[in-house]
Design brief:
Elements (H helix, E strand, L loop, with lengths): L16 H6 L7 E2 L2 E2 L1 E2 L10 H13 L9 H21 L6 E4 L2 H13 L7 E5 L8 H4 L7 E5 L1 E2 L4 E2 L1 H7 L4 E7 L11 H10 L3 E5 L11 H4 L3 E4 L10 E5 L1 H6 L23 H21 L6 H27 L5 E4 L13 E6 L4 H10 L2 E2 L1 E3 L4 H6 L8 E5 L6 H15 L2
Parallel strand pairs: 3-15, 5-6, 5-9, 9-10, 10-11
Antiparallel strand pairs: 1-2, 4-12, 7-8, 11-12, 13-14, 14-17, 16-17
Helix pairs in contact: 2-10, 3-10, 10-11, 11-14
């Protein structure tokens, strides 16, 4: 089932693929005489030129630390405030509920430590087999103080969460449930709104890892009613950083570890040390890129939030068309094993990330074969270690992952299918 009502809104205008690709200079790369195909987006998308220009402009004209009594320092303050406002529109929350940090993993460890200060021996946290380890290891670290971590299993046939097992794991002892919005390994979209209700029914907090979902669908933390949600701007066309949404009541109540002179006001009390101001500026530009895409698809929008929703109203069906063709072609390849949802009638439950194996071949060999032909894919566990271990494929190299975003094309899909058919005939 779909977990976000926004995805059911009307479809927007069509994407101008030529305009989109013109925004990304890196897509002009060639490998061995062939145009590069960037199917490596799940580990980090390419950046549009307005993002790189914003970062450069900050460094050239406004580079300074914050809270000073002079021009460039005030400019830095303004840049950070503008980025908070942009991410507030992206998440549909308030600007003071936005926390910036080095990356998702670092922020989650810091948040887990702060939450852990109020937990007692025997309190329980629920994680899942489907998640990236950055949404598992920070919570397991609390086992050192006697917290019990329970892990909800998957349905192996389609790599989806076993919701019945999850319900059994959530009890009166549960203090937090940590679930990914979408699997970075197999593309499954989890019913996080439903899971949030399960958590809140027993008085537990809900933490959503939206890192992989963010480039593929709109996020509305108010509709989800989650307590925390985190993502990584470099997965949705921005720079390498992490961004956390936290309900104001929790950001004010919890006690983060910080240095004494640091502000006690939110969100600053959660941002330890000097931030990467130039990259925060780039986050603002990444959100504005998506908004500009939305305006190009629907000229009637007025606010940035409306423009962001218009962008996803166009990219969701576009990516759906790409992945529908990709999966259909993959299922025709001899000896190919597909992991995840493959039924087209259920594609609303998945995003445009797929993982496969071919016969007994190590996925690294397949990725190398594709890379020599200019097709960039990833192999391994992608830090979703619990999943590859559960599937029994970790020791034999894990998975080959193909990730599509809206700057990819149908011609590129046909190229990877042709190359994989060639590999399978070896």
């Amino acid at each position: 089932m779909t977990s976000t009502p926004i995805l059911q809104q009307k479809t927007g205008g069509a994407i101008d693929t030529a305009w989109v690709r013109a925004q990304f200079p890196s897509l002009q790369l060639r490998v061995n005489g062939q145009p590069a195909v960037f199917f490596d987006g799940p580990a980090g998308t390419q950046m549009p030129q307005q993002v790189t220009r914003a970062i450069q402009d900050y460094l050239l004209h406004n580079n300074s630390n914050t809270c000073g009594a002079f021009l460039t320092s005030r400019k830095s303050d303004e840049a950070i405030a503008a980025a908070r406002s942009a991410m507030a529109d992206f998440f549909h929350c308030e600007a003071d509920e936005i926390v910036f940090g080095q990356n998702m993993t670092t922020i989650t460890f810091a948040l887990a430590r702060a939450i852990g200060r109020d937990l007692r021996e025997g309190d329980e946290i629920v994680v899942t087999t489907l998640d990236h380890d950055a949404n598992v290891a920070p919570w397991r670290a609390l086992e050192e103080k006697g917290v019990v971590v329970r892990e909800a299993d998957i349905r192996e046939a389609d790599c989806t969460l076993d919701l019945e097992d999850l319900k059994k794991k959530i009890t009166a002892k549960t203090r937090l449930v940590a679930v990914g919005y979408a699997s970075n390994a197999v593309g499954t979209i989890n019913p996080v709104a439903e899971i949030t209700k399960m958590a809140h029914a027993v008085g537990a907090l809900m933490f959503i890892d939206a890192v992989h979902y963010a480039p593929h669908g709109p996020i509305d933390v108010k509709a989800l009613d989650c307590d925390f949600l985190i993502c990584s701007p470099y997965k949705f066309f921005g720079p390498h950083m992490g961004t956390l949404y936290g309900k104001r009541e929790h950001l004010e109540r919890l006690r983060p570890y910080k240095v004494r002179p640091a502000s006690d006001q939110i969100p600053d009390r959660w941002e330890t040390g000097t931030q990467l101001h130039e990259l925060i500026t780039g986050i603002n530009a990444a959100v504005d890129y998506l908004a500009s895409l939305g305006r190009s698809c629907d000229a009637s929008v007025s606010t940035r939030r409306e423009a962001l929703l218009a962008a996803y109203a166009a990219t969701v069906p576009y990516e759906r068309a790409l992945v529908t063709r990709l999966i259909a072609g993959l299922l025709e390849i001899p000896k190919l094993k597909f992991f995840g949802i493959s039924d087209p009638t259920r594609f609303s439950e998945r995003c445009s990330t797929v993982s496969i194996r071919i016969g007994d071949h190590n996925p690294t060999a397949i990725a190398t074969f594709l890379g020599e032909r200019g097709i960039f894919t990833w192999d391994g566990c992608f830090y979703a270690l619990n999943l590859t271990e559960r599937l029994g494929i970790q020791e034999s190299g894990g998975l080959l992952r193909i990730g599509l975003v809206h700057y990819n094309t149908m011609d590129e899909v046909e190229r990877v299918l042709a190359a994989l058919n060639e590999f399978a005939r070896k």
